[in-house]
Amino acid sequence: MISPQSYKWFFETTTAVEGHMHAVVRTLVETQTKFQHVEIMVTADYGKALVLDGRIQSSQADEFIYHEALVHPGLLATEGPPRSALVIGGGEGATLREILRYPSIERAVMVDIDGEVVDLCKQHLPEMHQGAFEDRRTELRHEDARAYLEKTAERFDFITVDLVEPLEAGPACLLFTREFYSLVRDRLTPGGTMTMQAGMTKVGELGFYTAIHRTLREVFPVVAGYQTYVSCFGTPWGFILASKKIDPCRQLAPAVDALVAERLKGTLGYWDGTTHQHAFALPKHVRKALGEQTRIVTDAHPLILT
Ligand code: SAM
């Protein structure tokens, strides 16, 4: 048994007054790109992990929970089998991997601003992308996703926003605003859906999640929050599905199971009808906070996390 003192520890400040630690077996990469500080480390409990600007993005052991939760509710709520998808951000390639499980997908575009991060993930995290970047349906672009959405006229059945948090001086600050979500809505087909990771949902830290939910309600007819626990983050994590038509809260467990069987190739580790039902049934204090939030995030008043 190795003692805790013999490890190097990675300490992530989840809030200004709370943190989460991982014992590190070794560091594979530590560098600064044009956009962010990058670390890829092997942790004792979770295997490889990607860390950007000091924030853990995913770990080998539980990334299936995060990425399945991010992708499948959206692809199972499009009107008809999804044919095209856009990933905004997406670094590791695991979001893309989950999308490519749908044989109906003919085209999957991923727009991540940071080519250096994606190259490092390609090289060091093959367990996560599992060849998704080489799939003939994939188009990988390196540019600001907002600029891409502004110039493209293409419509997608599914758009997923898999971005880093909007940190001061980070690359994602103007991708969490009403104006940005309006662009996303306009680039969706009439039966399309979007999903996003929307920050932590732990007690006392619901301001970000509820403000994003409130902002999306200005833009989309259907907005449904859901959450899961991502144990390498050490906190429950919030997601939001916004849709032009289908409301995921009206999809019952057997219907979700039937859609999984019909639309997907292979088996999932996390998402099914029961998980869907559980995730969308937000607890009372979260629903209360959603109901009380009045803040709408705009380009003029963006939400920046510290
Ligand atoms: N799983 C993650 C989490 O927990 O937040 C997020 C996944 S992924 C690593 C986030 C990616 O968003 C990064 O690779 C980063 O380069 C990309 N990104 C940040 N700002 C962006 C922008 N303006 N346009 C496109 N991609 C952006």
The H-level CATH homologous superfamily of the largest domain, spelled out, is Vaccinia Virus protein VP39
Low-confidence stretches: none
CATH topology of the largest domain: the name is: Rossmann fold
State the name of the first-level CATH class of the largest domain. Alpha Beta
Ligands = S-adenosylmethionine
Structure explained in plain terms:
The protein has 306 residues and is an alpha/beta fold. It has two domains: 54 residues, Spermidine synthase, tetramerisation domain (Spermidine Synthase, Chain: A, domain 2, Roll); 230 residues, 3-Layer(aba) Sandwich (Rossmann fold), CATH 3.40.50. Helices cover 29% and strands 31% of the residues. The strands form two sheets. It has a seven-stranded mixed β-sheet with strand order 8-7-6-9-10-12-11. A five-stranded antiparallel β-sheet has the order 1-2-3-4-5. A hairpin with a 2-residue loop joins strand 4 and strand 5. Helix 7 packs across helix 10 and helix 8 crosses helix 9. The chain is globular. It starts with 7 loop residues before the first strand and ends in a 14-residue tail after the last helix. The mean pLDDT is 96. The structure holds S-adenosylmethionine.
